[in-house]
Amino acid sequence: LFLSVARRGPRAANWGMEIQVATKSDIPAIMLVERTEGYARLVGRWDAERHAIEIENPSCRYLLARDETDVAGFAILQGVGSANQCLRLKRIAVRNAGRGIGSRFLRSVLRVCFDDLAAHRVELLVFEDNERAYRAYVKNGFVEEGLVRDLHRDADGNFRSMRLMSLLRPEWAVRP
Question: In principle, which of 68, 73, 107, 126 could form an S-S bond with 94, CB 3.0–4.6 Å?
Answer without folding.
Answer: 73
